[in-house]
Each structure stands twice: as structure tokens, then as C-alpha cells.
Design brief:
2 copies of one chain form a homodimer. With 215 residues, chain A is an all-alpha fold. Chain A has 2 domains: 47 residues, Homeodomain-like (Arc Repressor Mutant, subunit A); 144 residues, Tetracycline Repressor, domain 2, CATH 1.10.357.10. Helices cover 72% and strands 0% of the residues of chain A. Chain A contains 12 helices and no strands. In chain A, helix 5 runs parallel beside helix 10 and helix 5 packs antiparallel against helix 12. The longest helix of chain A has 22 residues. The termini of chain A are far apart. Chains A and B meet through helix 1, helix 6, helix 10, helix 11 and helix 12 of A and helix 1, helix 6, helix 10, helix 11 and helix 12 of B. Chain A binds a DNA duplex (30 and 30 nucleotides) through helix 3. Chains A, B: Keywords: DNA-binding. Chains A, B: One of its GO terms (biological process) is regulation of DNA-templated transcription. Chains A, B: Pfam families: TetR_C_29, TetR_N. Chains A, B: InterPro entries: Homeodomain-like_sf, HTH-type_TetR-like_transc_reg, HTH_TetR, NicS_C, Tet_transcr_reg_TetR-rel_C_sf.
Chain lengths: 215, 215
DNA sequence: CGGCTAATGTACGAACTGGTTCGTTAGTAG
DNA sequence: CTACTAACGAACCAGTTCGTACATTAGCCG
């Protein structure tokens, strides 16, 4: 008698189909960009047909926006899971930097989508109701750490939370976003697993060093 | 009797036409990405016709590669013009960081092209004979500065030139590459002229602080 | 079981897009 | 002046691509 909630118990799938479309679309868009992505190709890599993409999402652009939303949801959740209680300011900011670095290097698709979205001047991001507002939790976290650091006299007092976040993000994003051009030009793959621990320590060293220098 | 060199004195333009095509193409590709760029649109924004694009460049891809090559030539020249004689190691690396930051923020088109090229896994960059090899002069410059810093005991001794270049580039590229998503999500335009001097000082502070911390 | 709707598949079309064909004109060499 | 070639233009073509019209099936409700 396991009663299904009112609607949505129709078992010719629906939810699963939508999820599958989103998965495939994420890969396709991240791989080829918005203009380069092919709706037919996404459909082909799905169990279902192109018809369903239009049935559930309405069109290429709306599908892309949903993909973006789901991707951003990922980091936002990761950010909310960060816990720095019990760490001193320097340890806390280093921890956050390392987690950010880890998350970015492990989610190349997301970084690629962000790059793509920037090429399009974030016009789709702006169209998304879920994303355009949605304040980001990291900033509050960083603000808190910076405040503690200042109180204890171990951090410079002119450091701004958003700026520090940008500094950390820069170094965490770069190896992923520019992996191929950088790799080709300097003969060094910035995502080489063997170098990863090194870069991870480097982000931490960098932010902490910056925050410790006098204002 | 001003004799023109053997050929190429034909004055129904040619060189000028090619340059114009390249200029327009640079904007179009940077604006819409490789797949999003339209050959017809490039032609329309030119004094000439699409026929000429194929006449001079062979096709969309070859044109794009030429655009890339010209864009990269820009920074390479800027890099070669950097002069740090007479500066102490910290001053030298700060100067380089600031110039890199200036150059990147002033050449958004180039940064966008690099982003686009990374989406395509640098496949076109690899196809370019001019670019694929062409060692980059900055690395040597940085190596020299780091060596001096180590000798004088003012820099950590485990800093690598390519890594330091990546650190500087990260922070210089980010505001341009992620201007729109970052701006939308954090309500702060990272390229706002009013914040520029601040970020410029920040890159310098960051690298110098990093290099000064003990290994 | 009959009917109703959500879910799905097939085939198609209109517009676009990279690339080409064919022909023309400007300038120069002889 | 004539012949020749580099430079150029207009129209066109074939393949693609987003989107849709139409038909169909699965499952549920009464």
C-alpha cells in the first residue's frame, strides 16, 4: 500500500528522463560551448528523443539555463558544508582555500560552464531566477575569518572578503580553465596529479602570506 | 621611380583588406566564440565580401588560427619590453605582476580568445606552427628574479618560475575572464575602474608576500 | 473495460551557414 | 594598347540545426 504522492507516480519515467537529459546536456554544453552544443547530439546520447527535450525544457536555451543552475547548486552546497570551527584564522582561511581548490579541480565541467557563460556575458545567468539572487555563503564565512584575524592582530586590516574570495578562486580556477593553453605553451599540465598537492599547498601559502603582510 | 619590391605593389589593397578582415574577425570570435562566430557576419562588417575571407585565409578555422596568432603576438611583445634592471627582487617581481595585470585588463579580447581556445582544448593553438613552439620570455625573466631573490636570502627557495607566473596570471586573468558571472553573483564588477588600482596593488602584495614566506 | 491524459516517437520543414562557382574589374608588364 | 593576373563580387549550393506537427502508447480512474 505504499501510496505514491498525488501526482507524479506515472511510471513511464518523466523525472528520470529529465535527469538523464540534464546529465547529458551538462557534458555536451561543457564540452562544446553553448553555440557548439547540438540538441540532436544531446538527444542521441539519451535514451529518449529530441522531442522530450522540447517537451520538458522548452528549448536549447532553457535547457542550458537549467544545466547552469544545477552546476551552481553544486558549489553552493559544498560551500555550505565547509566547517572551520576550532581553527585559528590562518588555519581557517587555508582550509577554505584548499577546499575551494579541491572542488574546482574536481569539477572541470562546472568551470568550463562558467567560462562559457562569461563568453556570453552571463546573459543566461541573469535570466535564471534561482541564480541571479541567491547570495553566496562563502563571503560570510570569509568575513568572519577575516574579522577574527584582525581582532587577534594576525591579519592585515584592509582585506576585503570578496577580494580574498576572488584571490582564492583565481588560483583555484586557473589550472582548470586554462589547462590546455597553459599546458601547450609552457609544456606543463597544471592539472597533473603529481603537481596537485604542491598547488594545493601553494594556494594556502599565498592567501595566508598575503593576509599576514602589514596593511 | 620609387621602385616597389618585386611583387605586392598591386594597389587594389590586399594587405589592408587582410588586416581589416583580421580586425573584424578578432572581435567576432572574441565576442561569440568559435562556433558562435559567423563568417557571413565577419564579411558583412568588412568593406569586402565573404569570398575574400576564403581567398586570403582559406576558411573559418584558418582565419581563427591567424586571429589567435596575432593576439598572442601582442603579449609576447609586451613581455619582451619588460625591464626590471635597477629593481631589487621584490620590486622587480611586483613590477612584472603589475604590468601583467595592466596588460590583461586592457586586452579583454585576448583573454576571451584564450578562454574560447581552452574550451576547444587548445586544438587550434596546437595546429599553429608559429605558436605551438615559441618559448615564452617571461619565464626566463622570472627565473632571473627568483634566483637573485634567493641569493639575497629574501625569497623562499622552493619557488618555481612557471608556478609564480601562473600565480600572477591567475589573478590578472580572473577579473577579465570571469567579469560577468562574478559581477552578477557578487554584485561587484571586478573591472570597475575605481577598483583597478586596488587590485593592481593586490597582485603585487600577493606575490611578494608569497615569495617572502619561508619555504 | 473504456476513456482520458501524461509521456513518447517519427518525420519533416524552414532558416541558417560554411564554402564554392562563375564571372568581373583593376592595374601592370611588355 | 593588349594581354595577363591579382583582387574582388554576387549568387548559389549542400549540409546542418533548431524546432514542430502529427501520430502513438502507457498507465490510471471511474
Amino acid at each position: 500500500m505504499s501510496d505514491q504522492p498525488p501526482k507524479n507516480s506515472r511510471l513511464r519515467d518523466a523525472v528520470r528522463t529529465q535527469a538523464e537529459i540534464l546529465d547529458v546536456a551538462t557534458r555536451e554544453f561543457a564540452e562544446r560551448g553553448y553555440a557548439g552544443a547540438r540538441v540532436d547530439e544531446i538527444a542521441a546520447l539519451t535514451r529518449t528523443t529530441k522531442r522530450m527535450i522540447y517537451y520538458y525544457f522548452g528549448g536549447k536555451e532553457q535547457l542550458y539555463i537549467k544545466v547552469l543552475e544545477r552546476a551552481y547548486t553544486g558549489i553552493r552546497e559544498a560551500e555550505q558544508a565547509v566547517d572551520v570551527t576550532g581553527l585559528d584564522p590562518a588555519g581557517a582561511i587555508r582550509h577554505l582555500a584548499e577546499l575551494t581548490f579541491d572542488h574546482h579541480t574536481e569539477h572541470a565541467d562546472f568551470i568550463r560552464l562558467v567560462s562559457i557563460e562569461n563568453i556570453h556575458r552571463a546573459e543566461h545567468l541573469a535570466k535564471s531566477e534561482t541564480l541571479a539572487k541567491a547570495g553566496t555563503p562563502v563571503i560570510d564565512l570569509i568575513s568572519g575569518i577575516l574579522a577574527r584575524g584582525r581582532e587577534q592582530g594576525v591579519f592585515r586590516d584592509d582585506a576585503d572578503a570578496v577580494d580574498v574570495h576572488m584571490m582564492i578562486s583565481s588560483f583555484a580556477v586557473f589550472p582548470v580553465a586554462n589547462q590546455h593553453t597553459f599546458g601547450t605553451l609552457f609544456g606543463r599540465d597544471p592539472l597533473d596529479p603529481g603537481r596537485r598537492a604542491h598547488y594545493r599547498r601553494m594556494v594556502g601559502d599565498m592567501v595566508v602570506a598575503y593576509l599576514r603582510t602589514g596593511s
